[in-house]
Amino acid sequence: MTDKPAALVAKLAREHGLSPDEYAALIDARTPALADELAGRAREVCEAVYGDGVFARGLIEFTNVCQNDCYYCGIRRSNCACERYRLTRKQILACADAGWRAGFRTFVLQGGEDSAATDEWLAGVVGALKAAHPGCAVTLSVGERSRESYERLRAAGADRYLLRHETATSAHYERLHPAGMTLGARLACLDALRAAGFAVGAGFMVGSPFQTTRMLAADLAFIQEFRPEMCGIGPFVPHHDTPFAAEVPGTVELTCYLLSLVRLAHPTVLLPATTALEALDPCGREKGILSGANVVMPNLTPPEHQGDYALYDGKPRSSADAARKWADLAAQLEPLGRRLVVDRGDPVAASVSVVSPAAAAAVSSAQVAVVPAAALAPVSSAAAPPSCPAIPSTKASLS
Ligand code: SAH
User: Which atom of ligand 1 is nearest to the CA of 249?
Assistant: First the structure.
């Protein structure tokens, strides 16, 4: 490691922020040793804020009908080979019931931008979930909608909303999406979601076509400034029936490096070890956790529909029931020194040492003391768990 990256790592850990140029320098300077150093610091910061718990979200992919035509996505409107489905409210509630019994306390309803998922219908589903499982958290991930729609869904009891910004560079956004979809519209939705009172999740793909280091640096700067409560970061993985079928996938290595940078830039962020990591590497989930992630999102969608919610090739599927998934996850996390917890896993608002005035204003009353990252000794690589100790290196077979 040269002095410059070491100084930047120290600055990031101390101030929780860098300039885009500094982020770009750290991305370009990455080495296995630097990645280990960042991952160790990211784990320390994560555990100082959230302890050794890992939060589970039960993912219910309730519709793959989508009016959008994003070039990277397997459920895009133009993909005629995609068999479309919609779950009924009853089916969704059955997924959640099984999940609740297993230990899940957050349910994520994700879908394409499906006009059948009206405000009224979604509000009814949210209300029914809350009535069936008082105390559960409901996260929605159903794309761009109007301010009124977001307000209505929030009033119905939805707690959180995931809407990745995908890339914070406008010209890049336009190369990933057809005309009519703009970064400006997406960011306006994120603002509207926050104004409606949601805990908001942004995020981006790593290694998407045309992406450069500068663009990733802009993504990190955006996360640092906007300070979303959640941030989904996953590698781009091509889908064979999309215009990006022949594009090169992103890497687990760079995605994990960025997870560590995001954790250090924004210590209180809820950071999932995303499914796309697992699609590229059977140890992807563990590697994400070891890089600073503290959320996992197992799929509670009925097995007969999981194959149709194919955002990208190789997306893991499992016919195991919710209880089995919970037990497997707990066992997977244990060697990493982490516990799967029966908890909603709400975001904590933090008083970090450096926040922008806008971010400071957004901090709610529920402040918690965060150990300044600078006070924490970096974890030496000797103390870090070896990567994926008990996991076979061959790709696990999908059932
Ligand atoms: N309609 C919802 C859900 C979209 S799918 C919405 O608009 O938010 C959820 C996420 O999957 C997307 O935000 C995108 O970042 C990711 N995704 C889609 N296709 C992908 C691909 N080929 N590789 C990796 N991630 C992909």
Answer: 23
Band (pLDDT 50/70/90 cuts) for residue 377 is very low
| 218 residue type, one letter | A
Tokens 């555990």 belong to: 47
Predicted TM-score (pTM) of the model is 0.89
Q: How far is CA 30 from the centre of its chain?
A: 22
Chain Cα centroid distance, residue 111: 15
Q: Which residues pair with 239 in a beta bridge?
A: none
For residue 312, the CA-to-ligand 1 centroid distance in Å is: 9
For ligand 1, residues with CB inside 6 Å are: 72-73, 110, 112-113, 141-143, 163-164, 166, 205, 234, 236-237, 239, 276, 311-312
pLDDT greater than 90 at residue 368: no
Q: Residue 42 contacts by C-beta under 8 Å, 6 or more apart in sequence?
A: 259, 260, 261, 263, 264, 291, 292
d(Cα 233, Cα 238) in Å, to the nearest integer?
Answer: 16
Q: Is 85 exposed, middle or buried (0-12, 13-18, 19+ CB in 10 A)?
A: middle
Three-point CA angle 156, 104, 121, nearest 5°: 25
pLDDT, one tens digit per residue, over 19-61 is 999 999 999 999 999 999 999 999 999 999 999 999 999 999 9
Q: Report the nearest atom of ligand 1 relative to the CA of 239.
A: 22
Atom of ligand 1 nearest to the CA of 235: 24
Ligand 1 centroid, distance to 63 Cα (angstroms): 13
What pLDDT does 84 receive? 98
Residue 235 β-bridge partners = 206
